[in-house]
Amino acid sequence: MAGGQARRNPSASYTFNNSVTATHMESPSCKVQLYYGSTSHFALMHEIYRDLVSNQAPPRPEKLGEVEEASAGIDMFSFRRIFFGTPDETQDCGRGRGGDPSVMFLPRELAEVFLGRFLDSLYNLVQFCGRDSFRRALDQLYRPSPGAKSDVWTQCILLVALATGSLGTEHYRWGDVLFDRVRATYGPLDDVVNLHTVQLSLLMAHYQTEQGRPNSSFLHLGTAVRKALSAGLHKEAPKQTKDSEESIQERRVTFWSLYFYETWFCFHLGRPTSLTLRDVSIELPGNPFILALVHMSKVIARLADEMFGQHHDSLLHMWRLARSIMDDLGSHSALIQQALGKGIDDRPQQGSLGVCQTILSTIYYHTILLTFRPFLIFRGRWQQESESNSQNQTQTQNTNTNINRPTEVPTWLNEACTKALSAACKTIHNLHEAHSANDLVRELRYHGYFLGSASFAIIYDLMHGKNLSSTHLPWIYAALQTLSSMREGDPIKSTLSAIQTVLRKLSPEYEWPLLPFQQNYQSQVQPHTQSQSQSQSQSQSQVQAQDHNEQIYPTQSHNPSIGIPYPNFQIGFQDQSLQSIGSVGSGSGEDLLDLTLSDMGWDFDFSTMDLEAFFSIYPGVETPS
What we know:
The chain is mainly α. 54% of the residues lie in helices and 3% in strands. The chain folds into 2 domains: 108-290; 315-393 and 409-526 and 536-595, no CATH class.
């Protein structure tokens, strides 16, 4: 059966969800309508929403389409602001003023703090020029040389860097003020194409990601890609130009930094990419960290194409493909080691190195999670359908008369699900440890996405398994406490609220009594005034990490009514070690039980079980408003 074309079962009325859309009225005359594909976080949340409310509404006979309206779900989870990227608070009166960016209103002392924060953190993703170049630009901005001509692009790049750095400090409200100043300056010059305009658009995308505005990030990335192609950055510079080696590397690092982020972020949102390697002939960068990200991006691109962009009738074929992708990902471990000088699972490092370690770790384990999540979805549907049929024998007889499905879950399928869940737990574990040891890592807002996605994968399994609260809830609580150690505001606030809402819907006892944000956050974070790697010794950092760990992750549960302890990071998930997640186990033999469409009596393509598109395990239902 694995190699043949399985037949469709026209009588099956089960539906799945490929993507979601929603509409938002900014004003009576301004309607915003956005679409997110099956790999997006929003598709996952919509499917969990449908599972939660499915018993509250009668079934409808017609099948749902590939794109579903998600407004009710995002409102239940209070996620509308993230979905549409709308502002969450009113900013200072300085926002939106145009004019010369050199007319500064930001005290230099704060500017130096913001720049230091940026250079120690997200600069690692955009290393197209040296740190000293940013420092010289800052000095020139505040103490311009007599007669020197202002460079508008250098100033705009600097201001976005300052805006990004501000988000990790108590002065984060400066971020949008600086960002809007750049937009006002940059707007009239939007058609200009050169290396600096590509760099600026890429930086603006990173800023909007940190602010929880994914659609805006996507649009800025699109601008960066179009300008990069227009400038020919995907090709090597002509030798006749006689560019310096520094200029050549700047060009390469700019393009490949863009390639990584565009590949990853489009996958994150479930939207097509604009850059493909078949169009690229520029050499790889010499920067080892960017090089490691590029090779991981190639695995992600393969995952998107072969696992989720192809038709699959055989789940066993998908299992073997997933194992091949894991082999591919594991083959780049030497590049990761070279980039860090350490492994991604080693003790969390301090300062900028710790930021790089966490970036590679989150991308690595999230890729594993996405690779094996389709199997988790499959098993969840199987479990739910089996339970439903056992409760209603009459319905089973009517709908599944000729279905010859297995009665037990194959070992290889359970192994695949364990890999997905273990990768989710490893993400939570590593971010917990890194947050405890490094405040630069703790204040990167995008980590809320990884923690939320990992939590919802565990929640999905909790919803469809039996007696799993003792093994699953501790990891969800650990993610919630890690999130609560960060500064309040979106995207962190919305992620916390959404997870808590699902737990409360499943059982009021499951809700976690979080500490108030300000009490929790202020007790952990001090304003960042200098590079952490310079201001703390290794021994001091370890003591601080231990103190933080004891305060945020106490040995006793804060919810004694259900007696759920914190997870044992040494033992791992369900008493299985987290150290060998990426390795392949059993399942290479040819005599394994396959699962096909006709076996299960389902009418959908296995390839639609992709990533966060957690298709409904119920017959089509009208989601209540």
